[in-house]
């Protein structure tokens, strides 16, 4: 028994020693705690904290496919030169678009720090109209330009920073954003209601009792870009209640020293029906836009409609949670009259199909996109938003 016990004890001692040496040879590091993405619900759905920061980020956008036909609207049908005889054919105007959007938000001692960006990428027809390209050297017949589809490049539509009420960067004019766009139709600018793209320095004020206001210093775009250090200026006030809102904006065009204004009434009739009416008036004593750009003349950064005054009205009727009817009627001092109406249907959450019909009766000016005095067109839109 003594020998047996001695052998067993020796074996156990050897195992213990070898185990100790093995433990010393292999060192397993403790796993560091993982930092998972945290949901941020301060600014609405879809935000999350950027890891290691207190900044909330939301990423989104949409993919859109438009099919346009007819003779009216900036994206309603097209013309192209015929490959065989060089004449003019009506054709579809199609556009595929990918839009990427970002939102950020963070609370600071000076208020909420926010940013918003929107970048668009398009593949579409190059033009809406076939233009005379040359004359056939043999027959002398006119040959019109083709209308090829291709990538049209990226556009930066929004890129602004806002701290508290102060916003700077690329935006759309407060003459349109503060008072609201002209209805939920695709072609809401058949009678235009103001210029859009611009760099801005803006200040928003919210009194907290339904009253809000904005002051915006704007650079303009294209032919409407300011021609000195003096900016375009927009100011607006709004009163919002449960039944709707009353809004007014006024704009100063520094290039021509002209003034334009709009007043709008929004009414929420019930859960299904909402209506709006908006009127605009602008002076044009000094407007001297070149006739090659605007044959009717009298158009600036803000007063883009024909003549001095214009009206827009319409509304939305929500048939059910999936289907809505949207319409807009517009008319201006130059007797341009337009109607746009569509049905929007949410196939599944995030996927909407919209079918729209547009009509324009051209008045005394010919700056519209209509190719006939009485022009009609249509758009079918597929949009996946995320």
UniProtKB/TrEMBL annotation:
Superkingdom as given in the UniProt entry: Bacteria
CC annotations in GO: cell outer membrane; pore complex
Topological relation to the membrane, as annotated: Multi-pass membrane protein
Any one biological process term the GO annotation gives: monoatomic ion transport
Keywords from the named record: Cell outer membrane, Ion transport, Membrane, Porin, Signal, Transmembrane, Transmembrane beta strand, Transport
Molecular function in Gene Ontology: porin activity
Major place of residence: membrane
Purpose of the protein: Forms passive diffusion pores that allow small molecular weight hydrophilic materials across the outer membrane.
Domain notes: Consists of 16-stranded beta-barrel sheets, with large surface-exposed loops, that form a transmembrane pore at the center of each barrel. The pore is partially ocluded by a peptide loop that folds into the pore lumen.
Family, similarity comment: Belongs to the alphaproteobacteria porin family.
Protein name: Porin
């Amino acid at each position: 028994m003594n020998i047996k016990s001695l052998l067993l004890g020796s074996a156990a001692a050897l195992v213990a020693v070898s185990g100790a040496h093995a433990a010393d040879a292999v060192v397993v590091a403790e796993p560091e705690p993982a930092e998972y993405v945290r949901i941020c619900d301060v600014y609405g759905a879809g935000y999350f904290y950027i890891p290691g920061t207190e900044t909330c980020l939301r990423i989104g956008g949409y993919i859109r496919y438009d099919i346009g036909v007819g003779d009216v609207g900036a994206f309603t049908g097209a013309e192209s030169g015929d490959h065989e005889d060089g004449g003019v054919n009506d054709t579809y105007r199609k556009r595929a678009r990918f839009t990427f959007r970002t939102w950020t938000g963070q609370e600071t001692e000076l208020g909420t720090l926010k940013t918003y960006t929107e970048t668009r990428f398009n593949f579409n027809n190059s033009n809406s109209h076939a233009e005379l390209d040359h004359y056939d050297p043999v027959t002398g017949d006119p040959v019109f330009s083709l209308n090829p589809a291709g990538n049209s490049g990226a556009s930066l539509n929004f890129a602004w920073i806002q701290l508290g009420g102060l916003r700077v960067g690329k935006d759309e004019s407060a003459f349109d954003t503060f008072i609201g766009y002209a209805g939920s139709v695709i072609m809401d600018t058949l009678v235009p209601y103001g210029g859009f793209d611009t760099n801005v320095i803006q200040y928003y004020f919210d009194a907290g009792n339904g009253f809000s206001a904005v002051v915006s210093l704007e650079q303009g775009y294209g032919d409407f870009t300011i021609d000195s250090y003096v900016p375009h200026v927009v100011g607006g006030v709004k009163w919002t209640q449960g039944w709707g809102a009353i809004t007014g904006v006024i704009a100063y065009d520094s290039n021509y020293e002209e003034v334009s204004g709009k007043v709008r009434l929004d009414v929420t009739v019930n859960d299904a029906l909402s209506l709006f009416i908006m009127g605009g008036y602008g002076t044009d004593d000094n407007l001297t836009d070149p006739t090659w750009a605007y044959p009717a003349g009298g158009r600036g950064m803000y007063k883009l409609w024909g003549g001095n005054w214009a009206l827009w009205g319409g509304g939305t009727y929500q048939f059910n949670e999936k289907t809505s009817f949207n319409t807009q009627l517009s008319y201006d001092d130059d007797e341009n009259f337009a109607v746009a109406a569509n049905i929007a249907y949410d196939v599944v959450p995030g996927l909407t199909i919209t079918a729209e019909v547009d009509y324009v009766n051209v008045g005394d000016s010919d700056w519209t996109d209509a190719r006939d005095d009485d022009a009609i067109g249509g758009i079918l839109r597929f949009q996946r938003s995320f």
